[in-house]
Amino acid sequence: MPTLGQFLSQAFNGLAFGSLLALISSGLTIILGTLGVLNFAHGAMFMLGAYTAYIILSHFGSYAAALFGGALALFIVGIITERVLIRRYYDRPPQDQILVTFGLGIMLVEATRYGFGGLSQRVPLPSWGHGIVNFGYFFYPMYRVEVIAIVAVILIIFYLLLYRTSMGLIVRAGIEDPMMVGLLGIHLRRVFMIVFSLGAVAAGIAGVIYAPLSSVIPDMGEPFLVQSFVVVVIGGLGSFPGAVVGGIVVGEMLSLTTMFNPAYAQAAIYAAMTLVLIVRPRGLFGAHGRM
Amino acid sequence: MKSSSLARWMPEIIVAVALVVLPLVFGANSLDLLTRILLWGLFGLGFSLLFGFGGLLSFGQAAFYGTGGFVTAYLLTGNVIGNVWLSIVIGVGAAALFSVAVGVLALRRVGIYFAMITLAFGELSYFLENSPLSHFTGGENGLPGIPAPSLQLGSFKYVFTGSWPSYELIAALFFVGYVLARFIIQSPVGNVLIGINQNPGRTAALGHHVPGYKLAAFVLAGAYAGLAGALLGIFQSYMPPSAFALDTSGQLVIQTVIGGAEILLGPTIGAAIWLSLRDFLQQVPVLGDLWKFILGFAFVLLVTLLRRGMGGELYALWLRKRPSGLMPATAAAHERLTPAEVVELLQPLTAPEDGALALDVQSVSKSYGGIHANSDVTFKVPAGALYAVIGPNGAGKSTFLRMLAGEEHPDSGSIRVNGVERTATDVTAAAQNGVAKSFQINQLFPHLTVRQNLRLGASGHYRGRIRFDIFRRADSIAAVEKLVDALLDELDLTQHADVAVDTLAYGEKRRLELGLALSSRPSLLLLDEPLAGLSPAEREDVKQLIKNIRRGRTIVLVEHDMDAVFELAERIMVMHDGNRLTEGDPGTIQKDSQVQQAYLGGIDF
Fold first, then answer.
1. Which chain B residues are closer than 8 Å to A32 by Cβ?
2. In this predicted complex, what is the ipTM?
């Protein structure tokens, strides 16, 4: 049996990883809920954010600039993607939207591979991220504690955007009933563009924060994409609270199962997803009637 | 009428010739590439049935490819079974079995959710292979040393090893797989799958068991995947763990879309393009590192602009250029029927006794959240009568009809049809038991011809809820074809029989909508606003049609056109606010002050 210190340390790992998953998934879920588009390029967008961090941190060393740069880069990628591609797909079947974002994901990954090579690159920690914290029962890397705090702040900003602004009201109303919002004379297309970009920004910022924890490689987004699907199914489609809670649940499950038997960690989250589908298909926070 | 048997088998003949000629033309150096293309093509035959015909986009086919491959490989390398053929059969069986389990769960959802769930199962399989099952699968190393199968003919033994024999084996199995898939798409089962893709709700309402057919398509795709996986291991004499990877499912999807999902050879064409372009681009300087980017870009372009894929677009072009080509939708000869025969053919299948209650609804209620759509509605219709239900918008008429058709179940109360309890029956069972409904908004199969639409309806009762009659052609059931001809005559759509439904005028679509409801020869016919949206002349046509099709069947009509209601109905129930307001013959209802007030909005809420 693991000691209390090991257990708490793993629980902290789960929280750090889970909060990142929550951020990625919240981007995926607002795009899905508002536009009805399942963005298969979301993992690639996460990867782009990580590469932006790699460029900025290794050249300038400024973490704030990396966060800002990652957000800006993905905002632009989001706008272009929505205007050039996604917009043509709103009236097409969901399968087509999946296919086109899947193809876009491949293009983004391959372009990155062409530009930066296929090998993994180390990303430096910010100066204030070095060192360890003594929690009494266990020691814990400083940057991971800070990750939890940074993600929490960003999720709060997202929450305020979605729940305290008029645009957020439109987005939430659009998730409930897109046709009604259109009938009210609100120009949804522009809102759609901004929502898609915000979703991309969420993935991008998560990529920036994740990069110094690990290293960057063009394929790094794929596991995050699949895990964020699991989060969205568990949390409930289109639900922001569902993405946050689901992200942390999945992060903890991965982390705590690893402690007992690493081999079963990945299998466990898919088993949980299956269970949710059988017992409660709309997820923890999903609305009735939406599939 | 019947196309000559040579023309009917032309696709099979062309494929057989190509399988023999292509390796001779391109030479022995091309055998490896051709074999790989055929492996992906075999994998894709099942996927085309699932995605192209059934409309189910799965991102988890790697799970079954890997299962088929690893089960076969383990049986052979672990010395469990010596016989290669038997191991392949067991591998395919395991893949099919696994796809039953995944299908039962994933098919509870459609569209986006279905894609996500299948993808997650694909990943689950990958991780299971990688660690918990690595004792059997070799984990990250895979399983090397898989033997080749052989044929023993007397004292002569032929071993399928080396490039030519491997090609022969895989080409032969590809051909068998292709012929089987062709049988399936031309059979009634294939027709139902296409119907489900275009309009699942109506397919169910015509008496077809939609979940069962979807699962069948999913398991077929799983079995094809399993066979392709098993052959991959044998061909390479090594089973790689990457068979389970998301990339495998993704590559299958890409190749299928590039080649064209809606033709069986689409995935094979896509694989040929993908694999040969990869080999070609990798030898070109500069472009070599970009090969996957270029293919990804081409994929996005194709999805956006040419959704039918390369093969599909070429096929469509070819059909347009050759209207009398080899495989057009040949207009089957219309059997001339006398009016008396038409009447006879369109009789209800079960005729209730006169005077018995065809419909006996006892105080049903239905609420949606806090809204009482129906409260305590009682309604009795004697056999052979035409009753109407009227009321202002929002009175609960449509909800009432939906419960009679099995689309919704009442919260309380009971519904008996021809004396049998049907309260909790679903829409498919209702259709199989002689209840049919024509919908307020047309529920047709827009890309099928009028004849194919009616055939889907007419075969619903004839074939029962579900049946795997894959070795007969959809248009070969004489009784069904005769019924379709009678329906075409009755609906006055004979001259449009072989045009796609989305090109019909609205009035014609409306008649077809009624015809679909009639196609199961119901004894209880429910008509939800059949005259909605029609011009005065078209209204007369449809009114006449309703009179013609009574013939002893019981009809419940919901309609806003009061003149038509008073003309057609023998008795009328008025609904208001979910309640039954009153009921009486047309003369009484016309004079009823409560009814007038309800329509003028004078009733207090």
1. 112
2. 0.89
Question: Could you give the C-alpha distances from B548 to A82, B544, B552, B568, in angstroms and in order?
Answer: 54, 6, 10, 11
Q: Summarize chain A as % helix, strand, coil (round to 5).
A: 75, 5, 20
8 Å CB contact between B187 and B437: no
Chain B residues with beta carbon closer than 8 angstroms to that of A222: 246
Q: How confident is the model at residue B333 (pLDDT cuts 50, 70, 90)?
A: low
Going from the C-alpha of B183 to that of each of B9, B337, B469, the distances in angstroms are 11, 30, 10
Residue B498 and residue B504: Cα distance in Å, rounded? 11
d(CA A114, CA A213): 24
pLDDT tens digits, one per residue of B269-324 = 999 999 998 888 888 877 778 888 988 998 999 888 887 888 888 887 777 665 43
Q: Using the beta-carbon criterion (under 8 Å), do B293 and A111 form an inter-chain contact? A: yes
Per-residue pLDDT tens over the stretch A39-50: 999 999 999 999
Within 10 A of B603 (CB to CB), how many other CB atoms are there? 14
Contact yes or no for B527/B438 (Cβ under 8 A): yes
Amino acid in position A199:
G
User: Would you give the DSSP letter of residue B1?
Assistant: -
Count the Cβ atoms, other than its own, within 10 Å of residue B434: 25
Q: Token pair of B73, please?
A: 């490989």
Give SS3 for B258. helix
The angle at the Cα of A284, spanning A283 to A290, to the nearest 5 degrees, equals 45
Chain centroid to CA B377 = 36
Instruction: Tell me which DSSP letter residue A123 carries.
Output: -
Per-residue confidence (pLDDT) for residue A168, from 0 to 100 = 80
Q: How far apart are CA B113 and CA B34, in angstroms?
A: 35
* CA neighbor of B308 nearest in space, from B504, B51, B498: B51
Confidence of residue B228 (pLDDT cuts 50, 70, 90): very high
Nearest alpha carbon to residue B343 among B554, B555, B551, B568: B551
Q: B112 and chain A: CB distance < 8 Å anywhere?
A: yes
Are residues B173 and B227 in contact, defined by beta-carbon separation less than 8 angstroms? Answer: yes
- The helix or strand, by DSSP H or E, that contains position B382, with its residue range, turns out to be strand B371-382
The residues pairing with A139 across neighbouring beta strands, listed in sequence order, are A134
Query: β-strand B524-528 against B554-558: which pairing, if any?
Result: parallel
Take residue B591 and report the two structure tokens written for it: 């004079």
- Whole-structure pTM over 0.80, yes or no? yes
Of B41, B57, B55, which Cα lies nearest the Cα of B225? B41
Pairing of strands B238-239, B357-368: unpaired
Interface of A with B (CB under 8 A): 32, 36, 38, 85, 88, 93-96, 98-100, 102-104, 106-107, 110-111, 113-114, 222, 226, 229-230, 232-233, 237, 262-264, 266-267, 270-271, 273-274, 277-278, 281, 291
Given strand B524-528, what is the order of strands in its sheet? B435-438, B524-528, B554-558, B386-390, B571-576, B579-584
Residue B289 CB: number of other CB atoms within 10 A?
A: 16
Instruction: State residue A185 phi and psi, 5-degree precision.
Output: 90, 15
- Give the H or E element holding residue A66: helix A63-84
Question: B543: which 2 tokens?
Answer: 């009114």
* Residue B475 near residue B332 (C-beta atoms within 8 A): yes
